[in-house]
Structures are given as structure tokens and as C-alpha cells.
Amino acid sequence: MGWKTLDDMDLAGKGVLVRVDINVPLVDGVVTDSTRIRRIAPTVRDILAAGGRPILLAHFGRPAGERRDSLSLNQLVPTLERAFETKVHFATDCVGPAAREAVKAQQPGEVLLLENTRFHPGETKNDPALAAGMAELGDIYCNDAFSAAHRAHSSTEALARLLPACAGRLMQAELQALESALGAPKRPVTAVVGGAKVSTKLELLGNLVEKVDYLIIGGGMANTFLVAKGVAVGNSLAEHQMAETALQILAKAKAKGCKIILPTDIVVAEKFATHAPHQTLPVDQCPEAGMILDAGPDSVKTITGIFEQSKTLIWNGPLGAFELEPFDAATNAAALKAAELARAGALVAVAGGGDTVAALNASGAAADFTYISTAGGAFLEWMEGKVLPGVAALES
Description:
Layout: E1 15-19, E2 26-27, E3 30-31, H1 35-49, E4 53-57, H2 77-84, E5 88-91, H3 96-105, E6 111-114, H4 128-135, E7 140-143, H5 154-158, E8 165-167, H6 169-183, E9 189-193, H7 202-208, E10 214-217, H8 219-228, H9 243-256, E11 259-261, E12 265-269, E13 278-282, E14 291-295, H10 297-309, E15 312-316, H11 329-343, E16 348-352, H12 354-363, E17 371-373, H13 377-383, H14 389-395
Parallel strand pairs: 1-4, 1-7, 4-6, 5-6, 7-8, 9-10, 9-15, 10-11, 15-16, 16-17
Antiparallel strand pairs: 2-3, 12-13, 12-14
């Protein structure tokens, strides 16, 4: 761990510039899901408890460097105050006179929210001058936005190099969870990768076969691998043009000692619809008009058996069309088994990605996973083995 945490910093009397992700959904000016705001509350509270003054930096939407009232962070102040249980003041800019005056007026025990960083075109260009303007406002930089750490922006990368820097509680939890899953994991390590397309997860698969003992492939991706192995998949979603690439991944996995697990039985329907008439068949018996919409019970038995042998699990993507009943059965059964093992302390289970979070929440398994990342792109890029600029800046 080459980065510092809040525990390593003297925060008393200091202005702490905290990069957060509060890019939450708004409908008619009302926050409809405050999960991201609630998850940064521990960082804000700890800074206040240590005598620091939290000064929040964040982006909101895609204003493309223009000031737009509909994307002002001012709309989030009431929700922030409820989450932090303290007064939150708002500055109409994140640099310049308005920001400086707001910082000067900030009192101990209060939180200050600066306006949308992306109202400045330099933010997404990692403009050092913009970062220097932000750095004038505080004494310490704290990055608590792992979800934005894969972007080299002024508030995530350049600013971190101008002040003493550390990770916030959410960033710390993300990094520790991912380090335990891929950096120095307990073995055997199993990865579940699902979703529609092999082409969108090539780098992920290429990295994982070098690091895990079992790679379980589900969803439409599995169909592409079945095609590569000469198995007919009827009308199923599959990237036939990626068959050669799938064979290369299979060969690389074999060379690295990684066992790839594909479905051995399938749940097939002729319509992509909830409760469509369906049947469970051996994997090599998909009818010409059939669509593979889920893995079958024998496949689930194999998967849960592998979970029982494993010490670490990384999960990204569902095993089937989880949004349609009953084609969520394999995802739900596997997720609940992983949750049971994690709850018993037998498995470190880390998951991330939009569909993954939705699927695990729907199954009722999410609460018992060791850690669930809501970071999306940053989570995927970490799994792909890429350097994340926002994390690298904290380590420098």
C-alpha cells in the first residue's frame, strides 16, 4: 500500500479538499438515489471529528466546460446536509474569488461544497493551472472518489500532486478490497465474468487468466466461447466474429493454469421475455430457433462447488438474462452461495459493475458480499490491470 489514509494526516485546523463522487440521479431537482452521498459520509464525519474543514470537490453530469444551472451542485445541498447531519455551505465556483471567500467564511464543524468542477473546460484536460487554483483553497488533498480515479482530471490527478495527499474512507475501502482480491489474494481465486460481449471485456479476460485459478464465464459471453468450441447456439446472442479471439483466450488460460468454466446445460427459450416458455437442455442441444437465456442447474452445481473450494471470488457480470424471470435463476443461486460463504468467513467475495450490483441486489445476496464496488469503469480498469491515474497520484 503506497498511499496514505486520513489516519496518517494531521487534520486539525486544516482545510481538506475532498474529491468526492456525488453524481447522483436527479428528477425535478430531487435526488432519487442517495447511495453515493451516504457512502462519503464517513470521510466527512472523520475529517470534522479530527478538527478539519471538509471542502468538497465534485463533478456532476457532462456540462462540457460550460456553466449550466441544471447541473449545478447547489441542488444537492439539502441531501448532503441530511447525510452529514451538519450545515453545508455552497460556493458558486471551485476556484477564484467566490471559492476563496467561501473558504475564508467556513467555520469549524461546517462543510463547504464547491461548484461543479466540469464547469471549467480545463478539468477534463487535467489543466495544471486549474489544479493550482484549487490547491490554493486547502492544506490537504483527500481523494474519496475511486469511481473517478481512472480519469486524469485536474481534481483527481494534478491536484493530488500539489498538496499532501491521502485516500478517504471509501477510496481506502475500495483499494483494500481490490488488493485483497487481485493484488495478494488467498488462493484458490475464482472470477465470474458475465455480460453480453467478449469484445468489451478482452483486456479484462486477458488479465484475469494470468491471475485466477478458475474463470467462470456466463451470459452472452459464454455463447461466444461455445461457438468457438464448435457448439451450435441457435438464435442466442453471440459474437461469431470473436470466435478466434475466444480460442486465443482459452489457449492462454490453459498455458497459465487457469481453468475456464462454461455452461454444461442451458435454459433455452424462443422469446426474450419474462416467463417465456423454456426448457433446460444439455449445452450441445440448443434448437435452431432457441436462445440461451441462462445457465442450467448442473452448471450452477459446478459453479457453487468451485466457490466452496475457493478462498477469493471476484464477480463482474450476470450468468444469464437476470432482468427476466425465471432466467435470473443461475445468477441468484450462485450469488446466494457466494454470500453464504462470505458470511461464514470462508470466502472473500468482491463484486462490481452496474449490472452486477443490480443482479446481486435483486438476488438478496449483496449485503453479505465482502465488498461491492459501485465504481463501474474504475473497477473494470483495475481488474484489467491498468494503472488508475487518481490512485497513482496518491502513491507518488
